[in-house]
């Protein structure tokens, strides 16, 4: 699978403009089968404006991306703030050509700011995207082994994490992204944003990781669009097929 890593800086508060940026990236990389853009890319990371900038699934910006995805025959994964009856969710849309978006809502919110701004997601999601099964994660989710393990156990062939990770947490995600691939013997694509917003500096370092936790490609701290070819079904020896070998044991307290 040819994957486009969309490590970009969104225009703060410009939902329509950021959607147009996604469409432009798709048009410029017609060979990409999957294109991934960061957490909250459509609105930017300004938690004070999230209620104002949240959109529903019928919003024209998502419709524009869906049209571009169909024209390019590319599956698109992009972060946005989703307006819901119970509040605003930190969400990711997975849009396959000719289909409605599959949405995952961030379950593990980071810090008091996110917990005040967003409602927690209540389920994990494996998205069927063009015949491939993508396990979707958002930023802080990747720091816990359990969500990625649950997705892999449920049939995810590829782990996809979108992020708005900032200083000083770059090293945390560099390690966690590789660990989640190795934990589950699944390739993992991690796409983070760049730039500054709301007094935060976002660190980039998007990467694609193989089933052994090895880095296939890694970006720097500046905006970049980069394509990488991934094997979604690489051979894994029986002796390290962790999903089949793991034992769940009772814990004794003595």
Question: What labels would you give this structure?
Answer:
six-stranded mixed beta sheet; globular; 254 residues; single chain; alpha/beta; Nitrilase/N-carbamoyl-D-aminoacid amidohydrolase
Q: What would you say this structure looks like, in words?
A:
The protein is an alpha/beta fold. The protein has one domain (2-245): Carbon-nitrogen hydrolase (Nitrilase/N-carbamoyl-D-aminoacid amidohydrolase). It contains seven helices and 14 strands. Strands 5-4-3-2-1-14 form a six-stranded mixed β-sheet. It has a six-stranded mixed β-sheet with strand order 6-7-8-9-12-13, covered by helices on one side. A hairpin with a 2-residue loop joins strand 3 and strand 4. Helix 1 packs parallel to helix 3 and helix 5 packs parallel to helix 6. It is globular, with a radius of gyration of 17 Å.
Radius of gyration: 17 Å
The H/E string reads EHEHHEEEHEEHEHEEEEEEH
Sheet with most strands: strand arrangement: 5-4-3-2-1-14
How many strands in all?
14
What structural class do you assign from the helix and strand content? alpha/beta
- Uncertain ranges: none
Major β-sheet annotation = 6 strands, mixed
Domain count: the total is: 1
Q: Which CATH class?
A: Alpha Beta
């Amino acid at each position: 699978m040819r994957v486009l890593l969309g490590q970009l800086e969104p225009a703060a508060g410009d939902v329509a403009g950021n959607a147009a940026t996604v469409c432009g990236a798709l048009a410029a990389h017609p060979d990409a089968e999957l294109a991934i853009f960061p957490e909250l890319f459509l609105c930017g990371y300004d938690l004070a404006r999230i209620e104002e900038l949240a959109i529903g699934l019928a919003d024209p910006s998502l419709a524009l991306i869906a049209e571009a995805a169909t024209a390019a025959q590319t599956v698109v994964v992009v972060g946005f703030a989703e307006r819901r009856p119970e509040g605003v969710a930190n969400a990711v849309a997975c849009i396959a050509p000719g289909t409605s978006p599959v949405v995952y809502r961030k379950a593990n919110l980071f810090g008091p700011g996110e917990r005040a701004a967003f409602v927690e997601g209540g389920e994990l999601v494996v998205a069927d995207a063009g015949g491939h099964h993508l396990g979707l994660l958002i930023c802080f989710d990747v720091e816990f082994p359990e969500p990625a393990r649950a997705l892999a156990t449920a049939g995810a062939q590829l782990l996809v994490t979108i992020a708005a990770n900032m200083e000083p947490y770059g090293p945390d995600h560099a390690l966690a992204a590789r660990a989640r691939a190795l934990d589950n013997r699944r390739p993992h694509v991690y796409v983070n944003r760049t730039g500054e917003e709301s007094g935060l500096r976002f660190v980039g370092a998007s990467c694609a990781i193989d089933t052994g936790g090895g880095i296939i490609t890694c970006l720097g701290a500046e905006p970049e669009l980069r394509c990488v070819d991934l094997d979604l079904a690489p051979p894994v020896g029986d002796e390290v097929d962790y999903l089949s070998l793991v034992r769940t044991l009772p814990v004794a307290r003595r």
